[in-house]
Amino acid sequence: WTEAGVDFDVIVVAAPLAVSGRILAQLAVLKPKGLVFDIGSLKSPLMDGLKELQSAGCRVTSLHPMYGPDTRLLSGRHLIFCDVGDAQATAAAKELFAATMVEQLDMGLEDHDRLIAYVLGLSHALNIAFFTALAESGEAAPRLAQMSSTTFDSQLLVSAAVAKDNPHLYFEIQNLNKFGLGPLDALCEAAARIRETVAGGDEEAFVELMKKGREYLALRG
Q1: Domain 2-107 top-level CATH class
Q2: For the chain, is the Cβ count within 10 Å smaller at the N or the C terminus?
């Protein structure tokens, strides 16, 4: 990218997270005049580079599209904007998507990674655990598919999509998020509690788990 120069109206940093941080820092030295933003899934690994750009007087902000590169229509999709101290740069980035139907969300840098630990980290881990348990079960996938239920089919569909995605990106999302271990611990604890209630024949505790989940999910609307 260094051979292309920095004389552009808009520079979008779209690279692995560890690399993106270095690119942002290098851009701060080059001081481009155009709008600069990343589209990283996490912000804490990019914080130093973003701050360096801001301190260098560059027009910089940070975005996170909550959809993949294969997305064609933005209706019903979410795009997160994290201001890094330059409200005008964030407004300019929003204007780039004004003609689309994407839902624009404002979020602080710290809040972003804490929430993403659940939205991406937990959901990814759950699906990886699901297909890992199946893969190591000794049961043939075609046979399970033949006798599957509605719930199994729905979960299998999501897990299959996760399994086909970029494992290196998924590892970065887990490993580079300073908030990431909390949701993973919660997942392990939840699985242990389910096992405990089943092994102990505690129907009341099992029902209570499902009741709490139903009440929580009802708040989603």
Answers
A1: alpha beta
A2: C
